[in-house]
Automatic annotation (TrEMBL):
Pfam families according to UniProt: YjgF_endoribonc
InterPro entries per UniProt: Endoribo_LPSP/chorism_mut-like, RutC-like_sf
Protein name: RidA family protein
Alphabetical list of SUPFAM superfamilies matching this protein: YjgF-like (SSF55298)
Superkingdom as given in the UniProt entry: Bacteria
Domain named Endoribonuclease L-PSP/chorismate mutase-like: residues: 4-141
């Protein structure tokens, strides 16, 4: 089954790619690795903003991290043409806007990690960082970037 068929089976629709907000490219392919810049969480066209431990709960933030993961896949597909070229999700980096006392960043970033396993099965398992930060661009609650091994490039 192709990844596109898998997405349909799961009822997952990738979002339209968003242009970069600053001086960078969304995806850089070097050899057999694709480096996907940090993606912000848009749900129903609106940026999920706020701070964990203050005005955003873990469930909302997990959904935001999943939205970041969906944008990672959309950006990647836009550059490599087909997600069937994905050999493995190598690493995700999750950044969570949070108060100093909030310590569940790992749970938040599971939103993106679980998506990768759901879509790519064992090839979706990856190394990861989940880091609390005081703020993110545009007030986003979460940002996720990725390193992805691709074949046939």
């Amino acid at each position: 089954m192709s990844i596109e068929q898998r997405l349909q089976e799961l009822g997952i629709e990738l979002p339209e790619v968003s242009p970069p907000l600053a001086s960078y490219v969304p995806v850089m392919v070097q050899g057999d690795l694709a480096f996907v810049s940090g993606q912000l969480p848009f749900i129903d066209g609106e940026l999920v903003t706020g701070t964990l431990g203050d005005d955003v709960d873990v469930d909302r933030a997990m959904a935001a991290a999943r939205a970041c993961g969906l944008m990672i896949l959309a950006q990647l597909q836009g550059v490599i043409g087909s997600l069937d070229k994905v050999e493995r999700i190598v690493k995700l980096g999750g950044f969570v806007a949070s108060t100093p006392s909030f310590t569940d960043q790992h749970k938040v970033v599971n939103g993106a990690s679980d998506l990768m396993f759901e879509v790519f099965d064992e090839a979706g398992r990856h190394a990861r960082a989940a880091v609390g930060v005081p703020s993110l661009p545009l007030g986003a609650a979460v940002e996720v970037d990725a390193v992805i091994a691709i074949r046939g490039n």
